[in-house]
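Co-fold these.
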Amino acid sequence: MKVENSQFYKEVTSKLGGETLTKCYQCGTCASSCPVARITTRYNPRLVIKNALLGNRAEVITEDAIWLCSSCYNCQERCPKGVEIAEVMYALRNIAVKEGHVPLAFIEMASNLINEGRLVPVTSFSLRKRETFGLPPLKEAGVTALNKILTSTSFTKTVEKAKEAAK
Amino acid sequence: MDKPRVGVFLSNCDGQINKTLNFKELIKYANGLAGIVYVKQNKEFSSAAGLNLIKEAIKTNDLNRVVVSADELITSMVKISQAVQDVGLNPYLLEVLYLKEHCALPHKKEPANATKKAKAMILAAVEKVKLQEPIKTLEFPVRKSTLIIGGGLAGMQAAIDLTDMGFQVTLVERLPVLGGMSSYAGKFFPTDDCAPCVESPSCGLNGITNTSRKCIYRSGFSEIPNLNILTNSDIVAVEGVPGDYKVTVEKRLIRLHSPSAYPPPFISLRQQTHAMKQIFEYKGKKERITLDVGTIIVATGFELYDPSNIKEYNYGVYPDIIDQLALARMLNGFGPTKGSLIKPSDGSQVNKVIMIQCVGSRDERYNTYCSSICCMIALKHAKLIKEKFPEIEVNICYIDIRSGGKGHEDYYEEARELGVKFVKGRPSEVFLDPETEKLIVDVEDALLGKFLELDADLVVLSSAFVPSTGTEKLAEVLGLDLSEDGFFKEYNAKLRPTETKQRGIYISGANTYPKDTPTTSLHASSAALKAAKFMRTGVITKDQKTALIDSDLCGDCEFCPVICPYEAISLKQLDDEHLVAEVNELLCEGCGTCVGTCPVNAIELRHLSEKQILAQINSLVSDGGKDLKVLAFCCSECGGTVLDSAGMAGLQYPSNVRAIKVPCTGMLKISHYLEAFNAGADAVMVIGCKEDGCHYEAGSEKAKIKVDFTKRLLGLYGIAPERIEMFFNVYIEGLDFVNEAKAMTEIVEKLGPLQREIL
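Predicted complex below.
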């Protein structure tokens, strides 16, 4: 296997959240602490970091591993070298998003946020359930105000681009 | 001061520099200088014949100052210095310069300018030496006795070496027994024989044969006639100066063991901690003992880091999770389990052991360093277990196995041969499976990329080694520095690992960094040797190259006592109640950091006065002409050596760069830089040692601050701040110096003469 981009680590460490990447000495405490890695071989934080350090940029950015982190922060609490693993995953995701590599599920969640102000849409089923339990109706999500923020921070544009790329 | 009668001796280095420097012109120039009574050019001044020329000239012409341009850097100077002393001249009334390396070779391509620079260099040397007073040689008494703090293997080794050499030694140990770590660890690598074992003292004790090594009790150590052992004792206070320390020791009046007690007193870290607590909280009677010693060796060792801080490993929660020292005790036939491996929780047989490496070491949260000996301890214990109980399964979870050291890799190989299993991964957690009631070690084997849930009867944590409790307090009492990791800081980590910034106080063993036994014994003997070197003659002979305080100017500011890296300055109250600084001639190293700090210019160096600095500045840059001048202030240690190395290599840099040497850039004041500009310099370079490699602790750092401040001042005056720059160089960076010199020259060429900016 040829290392594709040996300078990739610099790209990651220059990003917010990616600064601690090079501290990793591959002890595997993160992997062993990771609830996701226990149930799927598609995600192993140690391997994501190893690949990022080696410079296998395309593999890291295009595959779905970085999107499988559940942000439980177990790894980060236990890492003996102070690698902010969950933050590194965010930094890598940010690089991936810029290049249009976003799994469909995330595009869908982002679209939900733009359209309905919620990551997970509220179904009529759950609204009916609430009624039967005598619970009050849910508060308005404030879509207009939220969209102002999302537009001015280029979130909306980024999501549209990702949608285009996914087609 | 007597009227200067200066002789100038110029070597043309056997014709090597004739073509570049016009010696006829130089001789004529030297002859015309004030105070010169004799000028001589010769092909060399290093051989007996050359040196004789100098000696004869001094006698015949009644010279009281000598300037020599020598043939070879430093080596010539040593010979010439001896020669002038032979004819009764104080060696400080000699000034040696090196026209070859500092002028002719680096300016080979511009002979006319090189000759011009050589004149300035000769003038500077003459003016400097004319202002120099003779410097006395001082003598200070040194007691031929040593205090050793810590009775572990390091302390005992140092004690044996020093007593064998005839010095009086007092060994102070705070525990009731000697032996340190060895008194509760059974076997030590790389020989796998008993841990509590020392070199045989060779002082001829009745009935004790002098073989290669001995058990502590068999060695007769406690009976060495010139050794005084104080167990159960603490150091309370240390006063005095190198060679003459007054030490106060407090001895707890309890007697539990003979000093070299064996079997060992402690079973586990917990028991040791408990014993230490008893010692620290002792409320009983104490005896105060005062000792007068010439030197002190600190051999306070290390202890295990308490792994209960690392919550996910549950040490202290489950009794079957232990540390390597407790395992060592178990494997010892004299230990609590008489050598058998049983679960502390219920006393049942152990079938499976898992060791975890790097517990609390290589960890940003606890100790960042590699504890260096834990891999070998784990391998040794794994081997001992497999040899004695082949049916017990042993797994070692590691990040990296570090088995550097003579014979150490063999342990790794033998462990594999014996069936020890290695898992490359740092466990994330150790917990008790509620169903099986077995300990589970959660780990990813990174090589397989597989998650393992290893069950174990006994989990052994290879906990980090940290400095002994009380290290910080002792460092304060002794005036020693600690490194960031909390261990004692060496005077120089590369070359002087057993010395400290306090002459007369040495460090030995694992209190500078975790060490195995072979390294500890080397280290201890080194400390003993350094102490012996210091005490051997009974006197310290030292030239009075020290700081001189003008008590009329000095008063009440208290800067210099704080800034002195050697704590050589104290404050003395005069009759009129004002405080003046007082220099301890023994402690002062003559760096001049105090000179550079004194706000009222009340301090000077005897070997480089203010007048001498100014005279050199003037001589070097005020020789007129249109060419732009760069004056380089260089320290006499690493920083200044780049001029030597660039010259020796014949690297070319502009001849308008002229250099003045000072002991340390830390002695330079902002006024010196302004004087340089005032005298005709168009730019100033300051070249010091690397900031963390200053030979006088923090001189370079302080110089940098003053250079930066000067930049601001220049800016306020409307002068380009780029005209002054600080550089940090070492000998091998001669090429870097050349580039720096060229860059500075380019800057002034672009800016033009300083005069233009002022007018």
